[in-house]
């Protein structure tokens, strides 16, 4: 597979890099906020321009020499993005003019020897043009753009991709398996991501809330393509202190909704919390596959933990998820991660599999004979006349009843369990749609 050219967005905080990233991607992917530091990780997206595919990298604001415990690691992320990039789009703020931080970044970019295009952002309207002061930075030309309004973006991309190897957009490529890393803050999601990718893609810190953007990262393992989405730690609403935190939690929930499989990460050291079950419940509602990922298992022996005991505790804690497989891993050592990816593939295969109508109705006849269908309320016999699978991802089944009642939730659970026993469906929610015969 030919690697895609990489284009990195670099600049000091709050010059509009994430807005430009969103504009080029054509969707609201990165968090945009008026305060410096909203973006801390490298954020990747595969996009195309005029039929040419490339990988776009958004980065945090670059403040050289900062002692901030979060912005410091973010600087390292920017430097890694620069090293990976074929072209750097150096974004400056035309309204604010040339600042000392811009000059410091320009000096570093020249030392890196990368091809650099200077994008003067926030040039809205005919009366505002980027000042000639930006020419002092020593780069060829200044591209006047407005990321907010989409002005000048085409010319900038034309110049950025000129001279790079052209990779056509391949519509035949198999869609990657989308994995969303979700969990409470500080359970090790970003560390797991970095271990899976083999690089320091996400900022890792002991400070809860380090990750705010959802960070998409494609990779391949054993011939299968994955797209790994690291998300902000999901906290209770009353614990969210900043507006940007609310946005990041909303994005984490959306990441789950658009995933194939949610990797619900829990911490072996701190144990299971109520919020873990809440997060898993949201994944069930979204209809995605679910794997319980017990991280930091390298410390289990010293703590006297066993997989059997911990898994039993998890089954008791996650009462609605007896069907979700559990994988015990360590982001520190990498143990268990190959097995985790293999299990993710099995879960995705299960949530996209189908049962024939004949197989399903033979099973229904057997299980209803063993236990008579039970309505939600009222008396009278209820019969399941016919069943068929009407959808996948998640597997969805329509059951036709002989009269207009609903099945008791306990009986629906019984049917779901028997369907799982007969046909598998490990790791995926099932949906039962109740229909009634028209008289």
Outline of the structure:
The protein contains 11 helices and 15 strands. It is α/β, with parallel strands linked by helices.
**Biggest sheet architecture:** 6 strands, mixed
> What proportion strand?
15-25%
State the order of secondary-structure elements, H for helix, E for strand: EHEEHEHEEHEHEEHEHEHEHHEEHE
Range of helix content: 25-40%
Derived structural class: alpha/beta
Written overview of the protein:
By secondary structure, the protein is of the alpha/beta class. The protein is built from 11 helices and 15 strands. It has helices spanning 17-25, 71-84, 100-112, 153-161, 189-197, 243-257, 274-286, 307-317, 337-351, 357-370, 409-423, and strands at residues 6-10, 43-49, 52-58, 87-93, 115-121, 142-144, 177-183, 215-221, 224-230, 261-267, 289-295, 326-328, 384-391, 396-401, 431-436. The strands form 3 sheets. Strands 2-3-1-4-5-6 form a 6-stranded mixed sheet, with helices on both faces. Helix 10 (357-370) crosses helix 11 (409-423). The longest helix has 15 residues, at 243-257. The chain is elongated, with a radius of gyration of 26 Å. The N and C termini lie far apart (59 Å).
């Amino acid at each position: 597979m030919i690697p895609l050219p990489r284009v990195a967005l670099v600049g000091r905080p709050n010059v509009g890099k994430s807005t430009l990233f969103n504009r080029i991607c054509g969707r609201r992917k990165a968090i945009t906020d008026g305060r410096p530091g909203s973006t801390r990780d490298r954020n990747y997206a595969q996009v195309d321009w005029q039929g040419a595919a490339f990988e776009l990298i958004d980065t945090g604001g670059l403040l050289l020499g900062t002692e901030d415990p979060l912005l410091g690691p973010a600087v390292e992320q920017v430097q890694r993005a620069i090293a990976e990039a074929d072209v750097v789009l150096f974004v400056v703020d035309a309204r604010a003019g040339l600042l000392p931080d811009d000059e410091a970044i320009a000096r570093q970019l020249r030392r890196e020897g990368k091809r650099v295009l200077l994008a003067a952002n926030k040039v809205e309207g005919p009366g505002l043009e980027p000042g000639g002061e930006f020419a002092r930075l020593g780069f060829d030309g200044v591209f006047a753009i407005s990321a907010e309004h989409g002005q000048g973006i085409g010319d900038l991309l034309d110049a950025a991709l000129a001279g790079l190897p052209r990779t056509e957009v391949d519509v035949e490529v198999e869609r990657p398996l989308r994995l969303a890393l979700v969990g409470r803050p500080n359970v090790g999601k970003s560390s797991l991501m970095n271990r899976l990718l083999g690089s320091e893609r996400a900022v890792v810190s002991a400070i809860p809330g380090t990750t705010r953007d959802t960070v998409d990262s494609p990779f391949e393992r054993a011939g299968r393509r994955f797209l790994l989405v690291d998300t902000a730690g999901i906290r209770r609403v009353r614990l969210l202190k900043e507006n940007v935190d609310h946005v990041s939690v909303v994005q984490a929930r959306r990441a789950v909704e658009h995933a194939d499989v949610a990797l619900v990460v829990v911490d072996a050291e701190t144990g299971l919390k109520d919020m873990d079950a809440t997060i898993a419940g949201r994944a069930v509602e979204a209809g995605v596959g679910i794997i319980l990922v017990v991280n930091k298992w390298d410390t289990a022996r010293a703590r006297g933990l066993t997989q059997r005991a911990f898994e039993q505790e998890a089954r008791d804690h996650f009462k609605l998820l007896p069907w979700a497989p559990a994988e015990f891993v360590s982001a520190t050592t990498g143990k268990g991660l190959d097995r985790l990816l293999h299990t993710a593939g099995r879960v995705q295969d299960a949530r996209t599999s189908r049962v024939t109508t004949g197989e399903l109705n033979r099973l229904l006849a057997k299980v209803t004979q063993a236990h008579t269908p039970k309505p939600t309320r009222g008396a009278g016999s209820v019969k399941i006349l016919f069943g068929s699978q009407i959808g996948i991802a998640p597997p969805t089944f329509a059951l036709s009843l002989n009269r207009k009642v609903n099945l008791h939730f306990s009986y629906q659970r019984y049917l779901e369990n028997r369907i799982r026993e007969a046909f598998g469906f490990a790791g995926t929610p099932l949906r039962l749609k109740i229909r009634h015969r028209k008289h």
